[in-house]
Amino acid sequence: MESHIAEIVQHTGGVIGNAWLMIAFPLLGALVLLVFGRFTNRWGHLLGVAMSLASFVVAVLAFFELIGFGEEERRRAVHLYEFIPGMVDMGLLIDPLSISFALLITGVGSLIHIYSVGYMAHDEHRRRFFAYLNLFVAAMLLLVLADNYVGLFIGWEGVGLASYLLIGFWQFKPSAAVAAKKAFVVNRVGDFGLLVGMFVIWTSFGTLAFKDLGAQINGAENGTTLAIGLLLLLGACGKSAQLPLQSWLLDAMEGPTPVSALIHAATMVTAGVYLVVRSGAFFFPEGSGAALAVSIVGAATLLAGAIIGCAKDDIKKGLAGSTMSQIGYMMLGAGLGPAGYAFAIGHLITHGFFKADMFLGAGSVMHGMNDEVDMRKYGGLRKYMPITFITFFIGYLAIIGFPLLSGYFTKDGIIETAVHHQPVLGWLAVLGAGITGFYMSRMVFMTFFGQKRWAEDAHPHESPLVMTIPLMILSLGALGLGAYLVLGGTLYTFLRPAVGGEATAPHFEFASTPGLVTLALVAVGAVIAWMKYGRVEVPSVQPRGSFLTTFARRDLYGDALNESLFMRPGQWLTRLAVFFDNRGVDGLVNGLAAGIGGSSGRLRRIQTGFARTYALSILIGAALLTGALLLVGNI
Question: Cβ of 73: how many Cβ atoms within 10 Å?
């Protein structure tokens, strides 16, 4: 594979030289809101929004400064300090890949901060919520801007901590506390893979800096790069909720809806895709199977997430299944190498807009429906929430790949590229697109169409402007961003200095065979959804359903599988360890002590305190010794 990545240029001045401010602003906001506590209750949310917006401004200025350089000079290193003397220097890498993520994180993140001002208006702990949001943004920025795996890992763990805090924000709900713990534990499994992968990288190459690894990887053994690639993939699966570490994402919907939009749609769950693309050299040496493993995981997850989405009546969990599926598309594209990178990152960016739009739209529906999440208790809401409906509908059209909207260009680009390079996986992606047309149409019809199925105390109404304006802005990205990124190879050309690739950009075809088949299946899925949920009255009680329906409702028995393979054997091993500790270690120690105590208790009886007894003992001992000596002498 021909790959040309521009050399890294040391940068000390301008906005890029002060890129650390992108991380410092939200981190400062989090520290102020957490340290000063209740003294910031009245204005803490405004500080949180301001810090996120300030970070966005720095990212925009850094972007324009970066594109002012020639293509071969668009990888700029910013040294910060010596982290581990003689081993690791901490610094930032500002290149097309990292700045794309920084713009998404700070841009969409700021809109979610603004939305949260209205959504969390009546929560007594709103200040702490914004502190956690700021902490998350700072950690995510460190993850994507760090110029080495150590900095990436610190940010990686930082977003894990922030995710734990935000999912369990309403900790008075047992379900939220359990969901936060589950997300934390499952992600630690993936983090173990990433950490071991870093150990292997250090052992094999003696460095963890991205700029020093490029030249060394080319001469590495395939077995080494394969092992590193699979370990990094394990880390990516945990953070991006890909099979087999996907089970935490659906439960994570217990957190406030802005959390779902920020962490579980637009940013954190895309960190795995970033890791794979940033570490592309480990996945694409000649003969390595790591890239194929990435594509297989992506294809399997996009189907699993789509099937799960078909059976969810909870609007947020339906969107969570959709997130799993769409990130599966991104992973499939990332596994195709430079030919798929632009489409994968493009879909990641557009997905950040239309999925955040839909998650926040779901929050707007909940805001007007007494926090009800069951779509069977919605119906006909388009008349009462027109802005929410229009913006949500635009996001819906984008995600199903309606022609000329964002998802049409990015997702179909992944499908076309996959059919060309990995035909089996590509056609599975086509099937997944058809299922997406069904479950997303089902969601729209159950929520905004049909007859009223509300509770008597529900009074649906449109959300305030502080919530609807972010929806409008996000929907604009869902409308036209995909065409801008894909047509003419715009994003591919921009990313090339950071990820390499062929001289010719991949071409998007408007009337390719995979694209036409995809559109046909999406249309069929939408029609089936209309026949089942739009044309007839939806029952307010969930029907029993078939085995396949139950299979999907129970998340393909992912939790049951984890319980059978890991949790129950873990419990058994724990009990065995306790038994061994009690009966083995403690038994040995206690038995030895008891033996010494018992023998000493018996031996002390020979100590009578009488001189005649001791004299007799000496006499008997001397006689025995004399007799033994005489016996030996005669022999």
Answer: 15
Residue 45 tokens read as 């949310």
Closest by CA to 331, choosing from 425, 438, 443, is 425
Dihedral (CA of 190, 195, 196, 197) sign: positive
580 and 480 in one domain? Answer: no
Encoded tokens for 460: 């649906």
Q: Do residues 354 and 497 both lie within one domain?
A: yes
DSSP secondary structure of 120-144: TTT-TTHHHHHHHHHHHHHHHHHHH
Q: Is the full-model pTM beyond 0.70? A: yes
For residue 346, being part of any structural domain is answered with yes
Domain boundary, last residue among 524, 553, 582:
553
Q: Which residues pair with 64 in a beta bridge?
A: none
Residue 408, domain member (yes or no): yes
pLDDT at 87: 81
pLDDT greater than 70 at residue 504: no
pLDDT in tens, 447-502: 999 888 888 888 899 999 999 999 999 999 999 899 999 888 889 999 999 888 76
Non-local CB neighbours of 233 within 8 Å, separated by 6+ positions: 193, 276, 290, 293, 294, 297
Q: Given pLDDT bands bounded at 50, 70 and 90, which one contains residue 580?
A: confident
* Encoded tokens for 519: 């559109």
The number of angstroms, rounded, from the C-alpha of 565 to the middle of its chain's C-alpha atoms is 23
Instruction: Tell me, letter by letter, the H, E, C secondary structure of 369-424.
Output: CCCCCEHHHCCCHHHCCHHHHHHHHHHHHHHHCCCCCHHHHHHHHHHHHHHHHCHH
pLDDT for 269 equals 87
Report whether 412 contacts 518 (CB < 8 A). Answer: yes
Name the β-bridge partners of 94.
76
Query: Residue 525's domain spans which residues?
Result: 299-553
Whether 293 maps to a domain, the answer reads no
State which amino acid sits at residue 392. Answer: F
How are beta strands 9-10 and 76-84 bridged, if at all? parallel
Cα dihedral across residues 46, 50, 56, 59: positive or negative: negative
Question: Which DSSP string do the residues of 564-612 spell out, in sequence order?
Answer: IIIIHHHHHHHHHHHHIIIIIIHHHHHHHHHHHHHHHHHHGGG----HH
Q: How far apart are CA 282 and CA 276, in angstroms?
A: 9
Quickly state the pLDDT bin for 307 (edges 50, 70, 90): very high
Q: What pLDDT sits at residue 220?
A: 75
Find the farthest-apart pair of alpha carbons in the chain and give their distance in angstroms, rounded. Answer: 121
| Rounded Cα–Cα distance for residues 338 and 4 (Å) | 10
- Confidence category of residue 1, pLDDT binned at 50, 70, 90: very low
